From TrEMBL:
Keyword Oxidoreductase on entry: yes
Sorted UniProt keywords: Monooxygenase, Oxidoreductase
Protein name: Flavin-binding monooxygenase
Length: 604
């Protein structure tokens, strides 16, 4: 009893300490600033793809007094869509869903928008929102280090030297917040094949396609008598085979493993909305007419409805990724029938590539025209390991020798999320070391030990079934909201608690057990391994991800204050807003439409 009382009194200690601390705090400096007298924030976003462009727009919209630079090593804006120019490159979700939520596009030429149109769209958004000047191209981030005294990231950047662009110079920039938007599929890799570089003809990787023409069609216009070998059986290879087969003398695809080829998603829905029948197997049939484009352009309501219907359909497919779900079973039956029917002329290919694993384990690929291309007379398909490559042939393990004038390696990417430059966090810990054997994050947005650093479309931020645009935008906004909090509450750092990262880890481990992704099949979702950690996918649907990110759980973070005070409300300042203090600016913002949320009036 007495012991209990003593403990009780001991427990009062912190309260007394706290009281003492508060009273000894110098709060007089509070009167030196107004609540919305926001300090300047310097933000760096890495990568000028869909993520970096969204970041430029949203940071400028939401964070007052912000100075944001977007650094990209390439010489063009667009990320993936700048680099991937291979034949047939297109998005693999319906075109109208592959656009930012804030800028619909009416005049996509086809149901699955070609890559160059996506690139044009990104550039259109950049110009419409006037963020081109914030994007610094040919600026490669080569090093990042957290600087404890200043609570900033010191970022080293390499660019062509001003006085001699054939050489490079490096300079240092600093940022209060860094948003890494470099994505998981930006580092392509050559396949590990003996003699690969002994080949005397042109040999390209899908993501490094560069034959000098302004379009891939121009590049291949003289390939009518060429023997072309395409290596790979992923989404890129399928699009390449479908596009190249009609343009070349002979095409031989060499694949391994299996893949589900779906009927093009949403084509029946598009047919229904257009009021005409589209033939999903014929890519030339999946184009919109001028009248259809104009009618969507002239009516924003119609365009929104069109997109909404397609989004709704895409967002109804998540259950396909749950083991043994009804949708999984139905899709498997439907895809099998689609593949067998489309490969009727060469059923042996169907036997080889129809998977014995569930739909969705690997990225589902619609690839309009692919199966039809395989059936063409000038197309061959080999499903044996490659032994080696010589100056003019591809040698197969079974003894066949395939003559080749051109080789296209659609052999994938380094999807390990090991960044190609050091990111050194608190206590000198490099991120790549921390992320061994695999990345660990908190809601795919940040990780402990790396304050004021956020990710968008980083590890575990992808999804297998819908467009990723909504998720990218929500991750960008997560970083924007964190930056606003730092600025508003006069904080110098925000760092997720390690136990919150552990919890997200546990959630993922548990979630993926019931998903098809945990089946033992090598995929880039698991960095090419058959088993182990899924590093690319969000543990849930894209709608689920967006809901999770909408309202950050700020209590999962640790903070450091900018001011030497223990008073958590120091940021309340002098009791005024800046416009009242200075008689400048707007003092009626609280009744303006973009601030006021008008509640719906119930219908009587
Ligand atoms: P991927 O899915 O990793 O496919 C690479 C292919 O190359 C696999 O079939 C792989 O076989 C094969 N391969 C690798 N080395 C090989 C070798 N030595 N011999 C024979 N085959 C070899 O790469 P990707 O096709 O470039 O697609 C990656 C991702 O990019 C897609 O899943 C998708 O998310 C995205 N993408 C999107 C679009 C779009 O429309 N938005 C288009 C293209 C790509 P194994 O699987 O057996 O290793």
């Amino acid at each position: 009893m007495i012991e209990g009382t003593i403990n009780f009194l001991k427990n009062l200690g912190p309260q007394q300490d706290r009281k003492g601390a508060t009273s000894s705090d110098d709060l007089s400096k509070m009167t030196e600033f107004s609540i919305d007298e926001y300090r300047p924030m310097k933000v760096i976003a890495i990568g000028a793809g869909l993520t970096g462009v969204a970041a430029a727009i949203r940071y400028r919209q939401y964070v007052p007094n912000v100075d944001i630079s977007i650094y990209d090593k390439s010489d063009g804006i667009g990320g993936t869509w700048y680099h991937n120019r291979y034949p047939g490159v297109a998005c693999d979700v319906p075109a109208h869903c592959f656009a930012y939520t804030f800028e619909h596009k009416a005049d996509w030429s086809a149901c699955y928008s070609p890559g160059h149109e996506i690139l044009q769209y990104i550039n259109h958004v950049v110009d419409k929102w006037g963020v081109r000047s914030l994007i610094k191209l040919q600026h490669e981030v080569v090093h990042m280090q957290w600087d404890e005294p200043s609570s900033q990231w010191i970022v080293r950047i390499r660019r062509p030297a001003a006085n001699d662009p054939s050489t490079f110079e490096e300079f240092e920039d600093r940022a209060d917040v860094v948003l890494n938007g470099t994505g998981g599929l930006s580092r392509w890799k050559w396949p590990d094949i003996e003699g690969l570089h002994d080949f005397k003809g042109p040999i390209v990787h899908s993501a490094g396609w560069d034959f000098g023409g302004s379009t891939w069609e121009e590049d291949v216009k003289d390939w009518g008598d060429k023997n072309v070998v395409v290596i790979g059986l992923g989404s890129s290879a399928l699009q390449i085979v479908a596009a190249l087969q009609p343009k070349v003398g002979k095409l031989c695809q060499i694949g391994r493993g299996q893949t589900w080829v779906s009927p093009p998603f949403a084509v029946p829905k598009i047919s229904e909305m257009l009021g005409r029948e589209l033939n999903p197997s014929d890519p030339s049939n999946l184009y919109f007419s001028e009248e259809e484009k104009i009618s969507l352009k002239e009516s924003p309501e119609k365009l929104f409805y069109f997109r909404q219907q397609l989004e709704a359909q895409m967002s109804s497919g998540h259950k396909i990724t749950l083991r043994d779900s009804e949708l999984q079973k139905a899709s498997r039956a439907m895809f099998t029938e689609h593949m067998r029917k489309s490969l009727e002329k060469k059923p042996w290919i169907a036997d080889l590539i129809i998977p014995d694993f569930s739909v969705g384990v690997k990225r589902i690929t619609p690839a309009p025209g692919y199966l039809e291309a395989l059936c063409a007379d000038n197309c061959d398909f080999i499903h044996e390991p490659i032994k080696s490559i010589t100056s003019s042939t591809v040698e197969i393990d079974d003894g066949r020798s395939i003559p080749a004038d051109i080789i296209v390696c659609a052999t994938g990417f380094d999807a390990s999320y090991k960044f190609p430059f050091p990111i050194v966090g608190r206590n000198g810990v490099p991120l790549n070391q921390k992320w061994t054997p695999h990345p660990r994050t908190y809601v795919a947005a940040c990780t402990d030990g790396f304050p004021n650093l956020f990710f968008a479309f980083g590890p575990n931020a992808n999804v297998g079934t819908t467009s990723i645009l909504g998720m990218i935008e929500h991750h960008v906004m997560y970083s924007v909201m964190a930056t606003m909090k730092l600025q508003r509450e006069r904080l110098k750092s925000i760092e997720v608690k390690p136990e919150a990262v552990d919890d997200f880890d546990d959630v993922m481990e548990e979630y993926f057990k019931k998903s098809v992704f945990s089946e033992s099949v090598p995929t880039w979702y698991k960095v090419g391994k058959a088993d182990g950690r899924i590093v690319s996918l969000w543990p849930g649907s894209s709608l689920h991800c967006m809901r999770a990110l909408r309202y950050p759980r700020w209590e999962d973070f640790n903070y450091e204050r900018l001011d030497k005070t223990k008073n958590r409300l120091f940021w309340l300042g002098d009791g005024m807003t800046y416009s009242e203090k200075t008689f400048t600016g707007d003092r009626t913002w609280y009744i303006k439409p973009n601030y006021v949320d008008v509640p719906p009036v119930p219908e009587s």
